[in-house]
């Protein structure tokens, strides 16, 4: 029993870290379009809680019907796919809802972006508890261990992502890496059990990585520099106007400094 507990307890830790990583990354992804104020953070936190509630409910309903390690691993893999595609999904959603009221756009974008991944992650602790308690009568002790590890993972991710990873690595790379960690661990655990179909996850990841490529489109704007970090999204662009270019500096898509290149 001890050996079978270790992979599931590891997933409990990773699940907690994944939830907080998604919450922090998503809030920063939405900031360039909706601001980094209280309304954006409130929406992200609210959607996170709703998503986890959905996950807890679904996890409880499915835990007895699908009481197996494999189901937990595949749930984690599916969640990882949604995590990997967060950067591209956030850009497409904000562009799609660009022309409607900002508050309504935020209320639509945040749930569509976050609910799939976070609901699946919310299922994980319940599925793990059911799996571990099926062979023991210490359900309270087991639930305490699972949620303790999940919370510790969330605390670690909060400080690591918030104070180091985002300032140094931006948003896109951390989101992809977070998804890859969740999916790769589950894929390896499935392969150890001889489930070779788990290798199909590699194909999914390749296509997911391709989906976050920067698409080059013809535009009057030429992006000279772009970064995502603690200060938000920073951009330096040249804007063509009347056969000449003006250079502009943007913070979270809000213009800060303009220079007429033909006059200096």
Secondary structure elements and pairings:
Blueprint: H1 2-34, H2 38-63, H3 69-84, H4 86-96, H5 102-133, H6 139-169, H7 172-192, H8 200-211, E1 221-229, E2 232-241, E3 244-251, E4 254-260
Antiparallel strand pairs: 1-2, 2-3, 3-4
Helix pairs in contact: 1-2, 1-4, 1-5, 1-6, 1-7, 2-5, 3-5, 3-7, 4-5, 5-6
How is this structure best described in words?
The protein has 264 residues and is an alpha+beta fold. The protein folds into two domains: 2-211, Up-down Bundle (Growth Hormone, Chain: A), CATH 1.20.1250.20; 221-260, no CATH class. 69% of the residues lie in helices and 13% in strands. The chain is built from eight helices and four strands. It has helices at residues 2-34, 38-63, 69-84, 86-96, 102-133, 139-169, 172-192, 200-211; strands spanning 221-229, 232-241, 244-251, 254-260. The chain has a four-stranded antiparallel β-sheet with strand order 1-2-3-4. The chain is elongated. 35% of the residues are buried. Residues 214-218 have low confidence and may be disordered.
